[in-house]
Prior knowledge:
Keywords: Cell membrane, Coiled coil, Ion channel, Ion transport, Membrane, Transmembrane, Transmembrane helix, Transport, Voltage-gated channel. The protein is an all-alpha fold. It is built from seven helices and no strands.
Amino acid sequence: xxxxxxxxxxxxxxxxxxxxxxxxxxxxxxxxxxxxxxxxxxxxxxxxxxxxxxxxxxxxxxxxxxxxxxxxxxxxxxxxxxxxxxxxxxxxxxxxxxxxxxxxxxxxxxxxxxxxxxxxxxxxxxxxxxxxxxxxxxxxxxxxxxxxxxxxxxxxxxxxxxxxxxxxxxxxxxxxxxxxxxxxxxxxxxxxxxxxxxxxxxxxxxxxxxxxxxxxxxxxxxxxxxxxxxxxxxxxxxxxxxxxxxxxxxxxx
Length: 253
């Protein structure tokens, strides 16, 4: 049975079916069943999709900022850019936690045995590395080199600054392209794969229902045969009782 905090209960047969489906071998890991159901729930999936859509807008605003579409010298625009950057990092962090929870819920064997889960996990952690490690290093390097350029002559400083800006822009463009590709894959795969899981679950439940209906039909037929056999035996007993009574009467005579 599930924990008392669950708003519903699952029969042993359904629980066993769910454990087998998700590769959960420990029958006492009821919390993993609850976690799995929550991760696959419609509300959770819609929350992930909304985060993805928000992330796409964050990428769009970041691209405008890097390509000069936003005047970052205006205070409120700079504040917006900072909020977008923090939001993007937070969303990536949520996706990392989501991936870890999926591994815990379904088990490493089932998770890493599914190529789509593996691809999703690799892309999520690779994006986290870009967002939390590589991206800050690029900005730190840019700030450091900008300070060094101030000590050069105006002509050399201008050339160095231009070259550095081109390199930085190219690097950031690659990073943003990778992140946009990941978010697109994540969005399309998340929706399509969730729908596939839901359809597979419905198909399996329908198959299970048909099996149970067949078993019920056989049980009813067997019960009917038993009742008929029981009736025949009762008739036989009555006939034997009559025969015995007649034999006793003849014996007395």
